[in-house]
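Task 17 of the worksheet. Students: predict the tertiary structure of the chain below and write it out as structure tokens. Keep your answer in the requested format; marks are given for formatting as well as content.
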Amino acid sequence: MRIDFSSFPAQEFSFTHDPVLVLENFWNEDERKMFREAMDHSTWTALADMPLVAQAFQNCGNWLKAEMASQEGNRFMERVGLTCIADYIESFPNITGRHINFNYYSYGVEDCLSTHDDTDDAYTYAQGKIPPTRRLALATYFHEEWQPDWGGELIIYREAQNKDGGKLLEVDQCIAPTPGSLAIFAVPRFHRVCRVDPLAGDHKRLSIAGWFMTEHL
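Model answer:
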């Protein structure tokens, strides 16, 4: 479903029946400004300085990642805590733990994210940890402006078959990083972030992205 947040039928929507949700105008201008100011005061780490992540996402530029402070994190969760998210998470049996993981991201010219389905968490396993299961992925945008020819689209694929019966990916959704929009989709689902075009100049694709997760016996 792709809809303006003001018209979103929150009590009727279900990720079980519609695994991709795009809400336009989810954040107002003041909220976007608040998170941009928080980003300005954050400590950023470049992809090149995260060796395990860089190994998993090669040739993806050098985008930046930063942790959210607790105040902004609480404000964020208050706003994105939709009923349809809780209902979907609680639909899985034998849950022993519930987790979230959201961070700031900044993509500049030549930055991208290659195709993946959010199940290969090799860099977490390499640290000797067993990660929780990702159930819903989220990406939402806070830059002031984004033009159509600047790139940075979120591409979501569906799996299909070719003439020989082999698997192939077809584009299901092309989601522009429109300021204030919010995209949530069920995991696993192949997706990527298109490379930011040089036409973007000094403009940065500013987002919060991450997952709602569960832990099981």
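Marker's comment: Residues 29-40 form the longest helix (12 residues). The helical segments are 29-40, 51-56, 70-80, 83-89, 122-125.
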